[in-house]
Design brief:
It is built from 18 helices and 17 strands. By secondary structure, the protein is an alpha/beta fold. The chain has a single domain, classed as Rossmann fold. The strands form four sheets. Strands 2, 3, 4, 7, 8, 9, 10, 14, 15, 16 and 17 form an eleven-stranded mixed sheet that branches. A two-stranded antiparallel sheet has the order 1-13. A two-stranded antiparallel sheet has the order 5-6. A hairpin with a 6-residue loop joins strand 5 and strand 6. The radius of gyration is 21 Å and the shape is globular.
């Protein structure tokens, strides 16, 4: 299997010993990544230097790294309870470390929430937040699809009624080492972070985690994520599928992947973002005309394009969701929402930061607290579409969804990337419905079962902005059927 994909060497993220707001703010990290000059530094890379050109050569050694019986135990990782959690929690929780490189002392932190309903028969799902450099615990688990949300006091938790562990057993993985509570005892590891090693370590994590939780061996397994997860998710899937073909063994029963508001193609993302802002009245016709005149949205864009883009004035809006309220910090240091949006609090990053930096919370999570590193990002494909096309061809279930109010990885950009797959439409674009008789969004299916969906009224973090709609879509993905075109749901 050959995938000729270019690199970019970009982004330095500072992560301190405590979880910072930067580690939670997925959209900001991604915007920094996209604006850090990757397009000027990238270029064609020879197959000899490209780990994705021949994945079986690049990743064929990974089964050997999994032969040593991993340290730790399921019971040692059990979370008896989290500080401030609500009463009558009816599901098992686990958290801790899985070593992915014994020689370097590199270990990834995870939080695992089993389903409260029939966990033994439900699938296993791995969730990966993006960034690169964003905490899957702080963002994914505590702000989006996890079983709890942190309350404004920063001390207590409330139950998320639309948590994804209602329909699956969900692992939240802090990846790569240096993100969140994950760490390495070899500090030089942090200078070698990038897509290929992130995928390698995630694979080793899964193999070793399954040794700790053997009841999940052979269970239907899915990978989900968002944002820069548009890289992480298909790359990990590629490693799993390639090693299955290379070794003839199938230790991980991967059935499908689903990724929301993903970064799929760097240049198309830039074009799609600007076009989205113009379509939604954020930038003027004159500025857009200037941009389209001077920007090719490729590596040859120069000074005139940069000047046209610099003339954009978006104002103080949330690029996660251009219609959402923003978090305002007052002169006395307190924060509050600029307006009211049911079910959403733009200041939740602040509450999560306080909660996860509480020593008692870290103790309950079995978290190590002295992680400190810089993460230079060393490799990243400019486009993920050849890889996604290959995964579709293998028969893997592949779904992509987009909240339609996001400017960071907008639906406009995703549509351009989906078009590059050149797949035949089998079920045309049409609305899909929730049990509330609402249009949850729009959906289309293609050859090979590839599915693209929108989530109406949502921004970058779909499970945060539209928790009920995201759960309906995720449940449909697990069942392998697109949600209904008319309201057929029953109480």
């Amino acid at each position: 299997m050959k995938m000729r994909i270019s690199y970019c060497i970009v982004l330095v993220i500072l992560l301190s010993a405590q979880l910072s707001n930067a580690a939670l703010d997925q959209a900001t990290l991604l915007r920094q990544f996209l604006e850090s000059g990757w397009d000027q530094q990238s270029g064609d890379t020879s197959a000899e230097d490209d780990p994705w050109a021949e994945p079986e050569t690049s990743f064929g050694h990974l089964p050997e790294r999994c032969k040593t019986l991993p340290k730790g135990s399921k019971e040692a990782d059990r979370v008896a309870s989290l500080p401030g959690q609500p009463p009558r929690v009816n599901f098992a929780q686990y958290a801790g470390y899985v070593t992915v490189d014994e020689d370097h002392g590199r270990a990834l932190f995870y939080y695992f929430a089993e389903s409260p309903y029939g966990a033994a028969s439900k699938p296993l799902v791995l969730w990966l937040n993006g960034g690169p450099g964003c905490s899957s615990l702080g963002a994914g688990a505590m702000e989006e699809l996890g079983p709890f949300r942190v309350n404004p006091d920063g001390k207590t938790l409330s139950r998320n009624r639309h948590a994804w562990n209602n329909v699956a057993n969900v692992i939240f993985l802090e990846s790569p080492a240096g993100v969140g509570f994950s760490y390495s005892n070899t500090t030089s590891d942090y200078a070698e972070s990038g897509d290929s090693r992130t995928a390698s370590d995630a694979y080793v994590f899964l193999r070793n985690w399954l040794e700790r939780f053997p009841e999940y061996k052979g269970r239907d397994f899915y990978i989900a994520g968002e944002s820069y997860g548009g890289h992480y998710v298909p790359e990990l899937a590629t490693v799993i599928v390639t090693l299955h073909e290379f070794t003839g063994k199938n230790p991980i029963n991967l059935k499908g992947i689903i990724v929301g508001n993903p970064l799929l193609d760097h240049y198309k993302n830039r074009k799609g973002s600007l076009e989205y802002l113009w379509n939604h009245g954020v930038i003027s016709d004159e500025v857009w005309a200037d941009i389209t005149q001077h920007c090719s949205f490729g590596p040859s864009d120069g000074v005139l394009c940069a000047k046209a883009r610099a003339s954009i004035q978006t104002g103080n809006i949330d690029h996660y969701n251009i219609y959402a309220p923003i978090c305002i910090t007052s002169s006395n240091g307190t924060s509050y929402s600029s307006s009211y949006l049911p079910g959403y609090d733009p200041c939740i990053d602040n509450y999560v930061q306080v909660y996860l930096n509480n020593p008692e919370v870290q103790k309950a999570f079995h978290a190590r607290t002295n992680t400190q590193c810089d993460l230079p990002w060393n490799d990243a494909p400019l486009t993920m579409m050849p890889m996604i096309s290959w995964l579709v061809d293998t028969g893997l279930r592949v779904w992509i969804y987009s909240g339609d109010m996001d400017d960071v990885c907008p639906i406009t950009a995703t549509r351009y990337s989906v078009k590059d797959l050149n797949l035949t439409v089998t079920k045309p674009w049409r609305p899909w419905y929730t049990p509330d008789n609402e249009v949850g969004g729009y959906i289309q299916q293609y050859d090979g079962g590839f599915t693209f969906a929108s989530v109406r009224g949502s921004g970058h973090l779909v499970p945060s902005f539209q928790p009920k709609r995201s759960l309906v879509l995720f449940y449909s993905f697990l069942k392998g059927m697109i949600p209904p075109a008319v309201s057929v749901w029953h109480p």
